[in-house]
Design brief:
By secondary structure, the chain is mostly helical. The chain has 8 helices and no strands. InterPro entries: Pmp4 (IPR019531).
Length: 213
C-alpha cells in the first residue's frame, strides 16, 4: 500500500516538473486551452439550456433533460475544439516565423471559426451573434481610440439602445422568420402571449391554460 502511494507521489512530482518546463509551454497551453474551453462552454450553456428548455419546449422530463445535455455537450465540445485549434495554430505560426505578430491571431481564429463554428446550427448561430454584437462595440471604441472617428460629445448608448430595440421589434412584428428561433420564442412569450387570457388563472398564474375550458 505504501509503495503505491509513493509511486503516485513520484508520478505527481514528475508531472509538476514537466509543467514547469518552458520548452513545453506552448503545447501545454494548447492542452489547457482545450480543458478551459470545455469547462467554460458547459458552464455557459447548461444554465441557458435549462431555462430555455423548461420555458419554451414541450415534451417529457426525459426529453427535456436530453435536450439540455445535448446542447451543453455541443457548446462545450465546440469551444474546446476552437481553443485547441486557435492556440495550436498560434503556436505553429510563431514557431515558423520566429515571433508572434497580430495577423497570426486573426488567421488562426479565422481558420478555427471556419472549421469549428462553420456549421449553421442554433448553438453556433447564437455564439456568432453574441460575438458579433461585442465586435461592433469593440470596433466602435477602437475607432474612437485611434482617432478614426471623433469622440462623441454625448454618450451614444441611448441612441444605440433605441435603434436596436426599434429594429428588433419591427423585425419581430413584420419579418419574424428572420430572427433566431430562441429570440422568436422569447418575444412570442413577451409580446404575443401577453395578448391572450381567459380568466385569472392564465392572466396572473400561468401563461397559457392547459385545460379545455
Amino acid at each position: 500500500m505504501a509503495g503505491g502511494a509513493d509511486s503516485l507521489r513520484a508520478l505527481l512530482r514528475a508531472a509538476n516538473a514537466l509543467l514547469q518546463k518552458r520548452r513545453y509551454h506552448a503545447a501545454l497551453a494548447v492542452i489547457k486551452g482545450f480543458r478551459n474551453g470545455a469547462v467554460y462552454g458547459a458552464k455557459i450553456r447548461a444554465p441557458h439550456a435549462l431555462v430555455m428548455t423548461f420555458l419554451f419546449k414541450s415534451g417529457s422530463l426525459r426529453e427535456k433533460l436530453k435536450s439540455i445535455a445535448q446542447a451543453t455537450y455541443a457548446h462545450s465540445r465546440n469551444l474546446a475544439y476552437f481553443v485547441f485549434t486557435y492556440k495550436g495554430l498560434l503556436a505553429a505560426q510563431s514557431q515558423l516565423q520566429g515571433k508572434k505578430i497580430p495577423f497570426h491571431s486573426f488567421l488562426a481564429a479565422c481558420i478555427g471559426g471556419w472549421l469549428v463554428f462553420g456549421d449553421n446550427n442554433p448553438i453556433n448561430s447564437q455564439i456568432v451573434m453574441y460575438l458579433l454584437s461585442r465586435i461592433l462595440f469593440g470596433l466602435s471604441r477602437l475607432a474612437v481610440e485611434k482617432g478614426y472617428i471623433p469622440q462623441p460629445k454625448q454618450d451614444p448608448f441611448p441612441l444605440v439602445a433605441a435603434l436596436v430595440w426599434g429594429t428588433v421589434l419591427w423585425l419581430f412584428e413584420y419579418h419574424k422568420e428572420t430572427l433566431q428561433p430562441s429570440l422568436q420564442s422569447s418575444m412570442t412569450y413577451l409580446y404575443e402571449d401577453s395578448e391572450v387570457w381567459h380568466d385569472l388563472s392564465d392572466f396572473l398564474i400561468y401563461n397559457k391554460r392547459t385545460d379545455s375550458k
